[in-house]
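Note to self: keep these together.
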Amino acid sequence: MPKLSTLSASKTSRVLEFGPPKTGKTQLASQLASHFNLLHIDLENGKDVMFKLPVEQQEKVEVISLPDTRDYPIAIETCLKLVKGPCSVCTIHGKVSCMVCKQAGNEITDYDLKSLGPDWVVIFDSITQLSNSAIAHITKKQPEDYKLQFDDWNHLGILMDKFFSYIQQAPYNVICISHEVEADSEAKKKVLVPVAGTRNFSRNVAKYFDHVVYCEKKLGKHKFGSSTLYSPSAMTGSRTDVELESMEVPSLLAIFKPEALPAGSAVPKANGGNNSGASAAKSILDKIKK
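Structure:
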């Protein structure tokens, strides 16, 4: 039986960002293009934020646009196939193995997420839309005023669990972006959690991720928190104790590539210590990744 001391830590990270609309979620993720190639799986035109990047960084961003709607819920189908294994996606419809585009000679691209190296980050933007797509897929034969039944909610949970199970075991870097919904914690207190299907499923979705980042606006500025104690009213946490809230300029490099952080980019902890959350994470990662 292997001892922990003989094992190696994962070389990749799985991050869940969530918060209200327009709180810098996609922009925070896009800044990783300074050190990584990005595959942005765009369910709701979030790619427009990435045009703020310098041209040389835009060249490092590949986009899969999924034109998901209530009448055409393609996102859940395509995303499940993308995380499961190699597949081909057409540019026009965002559909895997699209016979229409194949016969018309339209652009089709092959993808194999599991073959991506550690210099890539896959971004699913957003899980909110993916959840809506799953609901639309389940109820596509029902009238517009149809209300979901117990079996429908159960089906939704199965689809979302299948997707996140692949994410949890992904051998590549992943960022999932979502919005917030209020749910009851185990202590029966209201807490903000990422939208990920049903409220009960959303409350437990953090288990699939290494880091959960809450994004918000305070005093006219974007704020990001990742430590377990960041906020009593929002789900957050980091398996390597990264504290984005302690950084002068919050960056997901503190998670994905802490050694690339600029010198002096972090703020000392309030207790007078010299280590910020980011530098502490770097120290931990330096030890466990050797």
